[in-house]
Design a protein that fits this description.
The protein is α/β, with parallel strands linked by helices. Helices cover about 45% and strands about 15% of the residues. Helix 1 packs across helix 8, helix 4 runs parallel beside helix 5 (about 160-180) and helix 6 crosses helix 7. The structure holds nicotinamide-adenine-dinucleotide (NAD). The site of nicotinamide-adenine-dinucleotide (NAD) has 28 residues, from helix 1 and helix 6. Nicotinamide-adenine-dinucleotide binds near residues 16, 97, 190, 192 and 196.
Length: about 260
């Protein structure tokens, strides 16, 4: 069982997309703050390795291979978490894909559906499957990864924006529906954070350096964010420090949307 010490001591968390970027850093920090963490991802090698390294550092962690668009996988991931750690208190719906290069006049319905299915259907399925276990545990906290692009638009990213805007409103509807169960549901809206997702988009662009500078210039703080800065927000929402927050949008964007 998880220890009682730390900001999320005694809690059990399931983090999707935990093999990389924001999910990996969130899993590390939740474990460091006392939670037992089930990491899930499509990327099994990296996920298993991270779970082992958390355990080696004295935390409690396990890994399960999990595609967030599969209902069967969700059922297995929730059951495995409860079987291994006894309950489920915290769900971090983090798995997602970028949607840059989505020009509305040329891109296919298939591309649109792929982005919406991972980024939005995946969050719905997470709520649908984790909800009963969290209610059975007497309540908990769901943290959904939206984006600044769930609040403001960006050319060439229509499907991504639609998916992340959907996550923001799905979060509010779930928060209202689940308040009676003691389950809080909030969304996190990162600016551009230095993860493999963002470096991949910049790397694939013809004018990568220019694009990086342009992205940086849109953040008032004049830099990309670090994964730690989002993971800290996620630990806060997972912990009882945020006990009066539900249905909220926590924007962590270096001032991107302040202008
Ligand atoms: N990095 C940013 O700047 C940024 C900004 C705003 C929002 N976000 C959101 O934060 C989340 C994490 O982003 P990141 O930057 O860490 O990305 P990342 O690419 O570094 O990591 C995403 C992880 O999700 C996993 N994944 C992808 N599809 C999956 C599926 N179908 N099932 C299970 N796992 C799957 C990948 O294997 C990967 O390990 C995403 O939802 C992203 O949209 C990121």
């Amino acid at each position: 069982m998880s220890t009682g010490k730390g900001r999320v001591g005694g809690k059990v968390a399931l983090v999707t997309g935990a093999a990389s970027g924001l999910g990996a850093e969130s899993a590390r920090r939740l474990a460091r703050e006392g939670a037992a963490v089930m990491l899930s991802d499509l990327a099994s090698d990296a996920g298993e390795q991270l779970a082992r390294s958390i355990e080696d550092a004295g935390g409690q962690a396990a890994f399960i291979t999990h595609d967030v668009v599969s209902e069967d996988d969700w059922a297995r991931a929730v059951a495995a978490t409860v079987e291994r750690f006894g309950k489920l208190n915290v769900l971090v719906n983090n798995a997602g894909i970028s949607g840059g290069g989505f020009e509305l006049m040329t891109h296919s319905l298939e591309d649109w559906r792929r982005i919406l299915s991972i980024n939005l259907d995946g969050v719905f399925l997470g709520l649908r499957h984790a909800g009963p276990a969290m209610a059975a545990a007497g309540g908990g906290s769901v943290i959904n990864l939206s984006s600044i692009l769930g609040k403001v638009g960006m050319p060439g990213a229509a499907a991504y924006c639609a998916s992340k805007g959907g996550v923001a409103l799905l979060t509010k509807a779930a928060a209202l529906e689940w308040a009676p169960f003691g389950i809080r549901v909030n969304s996190v809206h990162p600016g551009f954070i230095d993860t493999p997702m963002v470096s991949g988009v910049i790397h694939r662009a013809e004018n990568g350096n220019e694009m990086r500078e342009m992205i940086i210039s849109r953040h008032a703080l004049g830099r990309l964010g670090e994964p730690r800065e989002i993971a800290d927000a996620i630990v806060f929402l997972a912990s009882d420090e945020s006990s009066f927050m539900t249905g909220a949008e926590l924007v962590v964007d270096g001032g991107y949307t302040a202008q």
